[in-house]
Amino acid sequence: MVKKVCHGFPRSSTPIVNSVIGYAKEAVYPSYTDGDKPETALGNLIVDGQLFEANKEGKNVDFAMTNNGGIRSDLISNPTTDGRNEITWGSAQAVQPFGNFLQIVELKGSDILDVQNQQYDNESYYLQVAGLKYQYAPSPFDSTFHYRVTSMTTNNGQPFDLNKTYRVIINDFLYGGGDGFSAFKKGDMVDTLNGLDTDVFVEYIKDQNAEGKVIDPQTNNRRELVDSKTYLGQ
Hints:
The protein is an alpha+beta fold. It has a single domain, classed as 5'-Nucleotidase, C-terminal domain (5'-nucleotidase,  domain 2, Alpha-Beta Complex). Helices cover 28% and strands 28% of the residues. The chain has six helices and 13 strands. It has helices spanning 2-17, 41-56, 89-95, 109-117, 172-175, 197-210; strands at residues 20-24, 28-29, 63-67, 75-76, 78-79, 85-88, 101-108, 127-130, 132-138, 147-154, 165-171, 188-196, 223-225. A hairpin with an 8-residue loop joins strand 9 (132-138) and strand 10. Helix 2 packs across helix 6. One of its GO terms (molecular function) is UDP-sugar diphosphatase activity. One of its GO terms (cellular component) is outer membrane-bounded periplasmic space.
């Protein structure tokens, strides 16, 4: 009996893997990043989806962040004869295959600033961010960080408050200080999101499709390199 179930699983799962969950404007959205411009359209789509789904659940989240290392595949869609690009469940699942839990963490603004600066140490691990925009500049005399954040604002243009406590959605890997983001460990976990990160990504694409929207993420300068000698928090 067990043998039949195990042998039958790949065939029985095929309809799910190939099921269409939405449509994309482009056939491929790359997972890779340029070292000087680490923001990606696919990364923005992922964190936008996490922020959207969290607040759809009434979680009252301010920002979403994820690590580039967890984005393992391009989002690839299948062109159709009518000119559309179908996104399947399988292609969406492949983007974040690790299946991390999503946790809502309360962090002080100063700790969020530390997190952003930790992207620019010698390890060069980057974050994709939603709900937040910032500028950063070279810090040539800093032995720890090659760049530092100079200013931050929320997406609605509100000033970022270093003394305020914000609610941030991150995966459990980051909450444990993964990829050197030790500042995340200063936060207090107050809630979790239903489903794993890949489930939330699939659900977001489905929600966009239900509203008649075609997936077309962009890079929109959520991080901007500037020429400045004045750094936030100093």
